[in-house]
Structure formats: C-alpha cells, structure tokens
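Q: Could you fold this chain for me?
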Amino acid sequence: MRCRLVDIIGLLLMLVCGMAMALTSDRQQPIYIESEEMDVDDLQGVSEYRGAVRFSQGSIILQADRVVVIGQQRGLKKVIAHGQPVHLSQQMDDDQGEMRAVAQKIEYLIKSDSLFLQGDAKLWQHGNEFSGDEIEYHLKKETVVARGDKEQEGRVRIVIQPKDGQVPQSSQTKAGEKLP
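A: Sure. Below is the predicted structure, expressed as structure tokens.
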C-alpha cells in the first residue's frame, strides 16, 4: 500500500506543478491530504477521497466533500471535487493577490490547464468577480467564460475593477450580492 500512496502523492504533485497561478515556491512545498476515507484503484488509475477532504500545498488549498483523481502511471489527467460547496484558493506570483473559487463541482483538466466550475459558481481574481451557474477558467490564458442558470434568472454577474488597481470602496460587492 505504501507504494500506491507514493504514486497518488506523485499524481497530486503533478497537478499542483501544472497550475499556472501558483506561487513558484508552492511547487517545492510538501503536499498534505486529509480525508475520512480513501480508495485507490491502481488498475483503473482512480483514487477517491471522501469526507471533509482538505488538500494543500504551499498557498494552494482545496476543500471538498469528495475528490476524485484520475490518471495512470504517474500521468495525471483530471481532478474532480464535489462539495456543498467546494472551496479553492491559491496565491498568485508577484504579489497579485489570491485567486479564489467556489462551486458545487470543480473540475481541473491538466492537459488544457483549465478549471470548470459548476453549480452556483463564483471566481475572484485581481479584485474582479465572476458568478454564474457555470464558469470556465483557462489558467495559462487567464480567460474566463461564464454562463447563467437558464431555469432561474439566467444571468451572469461580473465586477471588473479599474486597471489602475485602485478599488473604490463603493464598487466592492459581497459574494452573492445583486448588482444594481
């Protein structure tokens, strides 16, 4: 079992190293995983963590009810986190603040270096806020695509801060607050 756990840790390390937003120093930090249960299927290349899952490495913190890691032979393909909600945060290089995301489901595709947030999704970066039913965030390109929930208001909400970096107090909103 020890060899299998080392393989899983190696897969998770590859996930973190591929994330473009991480502090450079995050890649040299140890990985910590806590959960109530863990199942590993080496033949299928799937490991699953359940029950108050907390994954951290340096400034990266992922908290979820359930996390599934998919990959084989130390080649990570995908990480899927489910929760009520899932919380993800990561410090960015060059004192550019923190990227934060919450959703009912967060999926990270390693090859395309993309985050997919589904279900009451919210993303904060550089003081900007994006919310909708679904959000796609392409890490390397730093692009965001958001979709509203058609069954409810069907709207996407966005707050974009001025380029000079000065965030006026009157334009700040809390997560979930309706814009005028």
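A (continued): The chain is about 10% helix and 50% strand.
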